[in-house]
Design brief:
The chain has 1 helix and 16 strands. The chain is mostly beta strands. The strands form 2 sheets. Strands 1, 2, 3, 4, 5, 6, 7, 8, 9, 11, 13, 14 and 16 form a 13-stranded parallel β-sheet that branches. Strands 10-12-15 form a 3-stranded parallel β-sheet.
């Protein structure tokens, strides 16, 4: 494994977007099929109609609010976008493309990112139980300070994924193609992985028992 992959301070490329205070306010009703939003600040308060749009494009913008819970945004594109204090519980972004996205203090319970492409994405301070990233492609993704019971990465293509200062229970990696998965500094309880993929994982001593159990090995800690 290349030494650059061992850098504990690595971070994805941040969004190339104007400061939030300089963005133009926009209503969530502007999110429609194949619509495009650029340099906008979209806040969706609770109680509105459920948001749904296919092929929606969002660039250089900020999305926030509880009104995004349960939204349907399949095959959408989020580029140079910030997701701040957003509720995406039960949301579907299946087949979406996320490039240079920063997601902070979000609720991501049960989010569906199946088949999505994520490049230079940071998720920080989020709760994401039952999140599904099966069959997704991850190229430079950082999950930091997240609580993720049951994280599904089945059959994912992982070029680089770092899970840092987080708690993950039930990390499903069956069928995943892994180039670099860095688990250092996180609490991992339960890993489902195929033996051939282990050489692409970076761990520190606290993760060794979970990995040994996944491989059916006995870890002598005396």
């Amino acid at each position: 494994m290349h030494r650059a992959l061992l850098d504990r301070d690595w971070a994805p490329e941040p969004p190339d977007a104007p400061p939030a205070e300089s963005l133009t306010g926009a209503d969530a009703c502007a999110i429609t099929d194949r619509a495009s939003i650029e340099e906008a600040r979209v806040h969706a308060p609770p109680g509105g109609a459920r948001i749904g749009a296919s092929g929606f494009v969002c660039s250089c913008s900020t999305l926030s609010g509880e009104g995004f819970a349960g939204c349907r945004l399949p095959s959408s594109r989020l580029i140079d976008t910030r997701l701040e204090r957003i509720d995406l519980a039960g949301a579907s972004l299946a087949g979406a493309r996320l490039v240079r996205v920063l997601c902070v203090e979000a609720r991501l319970s049960g989010i569906d990112l199946r088949g999505a492409q994520l490049r230079d994405v940071v998720v920080r301070g989020a709760r994401m139980p039952d999140a599904c990233l099966a069959e997704s492609e991850l190229r430079g993704v950082l999950l930091e300070d997240v609580d993720a019971p049951a994280l599904d990465l089945t059959a994912a293509r992982i070029a680089r994924l770092v899970i840092r200062s987080s708690r993950v229970r039930g990390l499903a990696l069956a069928g995943a193609r892994i180039e670099c998965l860095d688990l250092r500094g996180s609490e991992i309880d339960g890993i489902g992985i195929e033996p051939g993929a282990v050489r692409s994982i970076i761990i520190d001593p606290p993760q060794a028992p979970a990995l040994a159990q996944a491989l059916g090995a006995t870890l002598d800690q005396e």
